[in-house]
Amino acid sequence: MHWGARRTATTAAAVALAATLSACTGSSGPPPAEVRTAADPVVSGAHPAGPDDYPKPSTAAPCDPRRSLTPPDSLPAGGRMPAGSTMETIQRRGYLIVGVDQNTRYFAEMDRRSGRIQGFDIEMAKTLAQAIFGGPDDSAHIRYKVITQAQRPEVLRSGVVDVVIDTMTITCERKREVAFSSDYYTDGQRVLVRRDSDVHALADLRGRRVCTVRATTSIVFLRDDPAGVVPYAVENWTDCLVALQQGEVDAVSTTSALLQGLRAQDSDTELVGPAFSDEPHGMAFPLAHEDFVRFANGLLERMKRDGSWQRLYDTWLAGPLGPQSPPRASYAG
């Protein structure tokens, strides 16, 4: 397919997606087929990364990013949260507020046919809500707050959301700002290029433009990698796909699952080279809500035992990523 035609179709879908979602509930099932419509070309906003596009310089001491708070021996029954707990406060309010992305295929994406957001992260949010409220109708007790990657720590600090479930990599620096659950999904960073590219691995991109989202671990890896690439920054992952299609950058780089989501929107792209990072992902909570972190860790342990984690992974991620077992947790305190 001609790149101009591909660009118009995909960027139109991105615009429709952003315009449609504000707050909605998710639904189960495999990702929908792509819907293509006509629209004027969209500007990606990609620019050479500057100081404001990177996270603040790390002052965190070395740590085990996978280590989280020990879960309780057993979870309270849904709808009967312990008095005085963070979970009881949420139960009394009547709904859980979850910070999510809106255009990450397989994790959190609008199904334009049903008008509902869906994906692996959304199913995690629904399972968390069901554990708090009980009953079969988990969607009745969730409010989604669409956020950018850069907004994640602030919406937790300010109390705008109760939890962020948004493919958020656990790092020692981030653990100074937010509290993380145990690892609920592990991935590594790779490279996405056009099929007609001469790039076969990150090393082939020396001195060339590579797009990623600002304030992420991905942009830090690109800055620090000895391959010597030129990082370009955007606000959202679909912006990187637009930049690649329009020839503004030579490649896109982030974790494999996110890149597979972009590739699914454009068959003229492909992933190349091996992963060059090891990235555990966790649900993020306000630092003060340690009881909620322990509760979430207990829920994740239950999901591993009863097979529900595996069922969610097989439904949403096994297709693009291949088989994976639940990550092994590490606890302290």
TrEMBL record:
Keyword annotations from UniProtKB, A to Z: Signal, Transport
SMART domains reported in the protein's UniProt record: PBPb
Region annotated Disordered, chain positions: 25-86
Signal sequence coordinates: 1-18
Domain Solute-binding protein family 3/N-terminal: 95-320
CDD domains: PBP2_GluB
GO BP annotations, alphabetical order: amino acid transport
InterPro entries for this protein: Bact_solute-bind_prot3, SBP_3_CS, Solute-binding_3/MltF_N
GO cellular component, one term: outer membrane-bounded periplasmic space
A family per Pfam: SBP_bac_3
Family, as annotated: Belongs to the bacterial solute-binding protein 3 family.
Protein's name according to its UniProt entry: Solute-binding protein family 3/N-terminal domain-containing protein
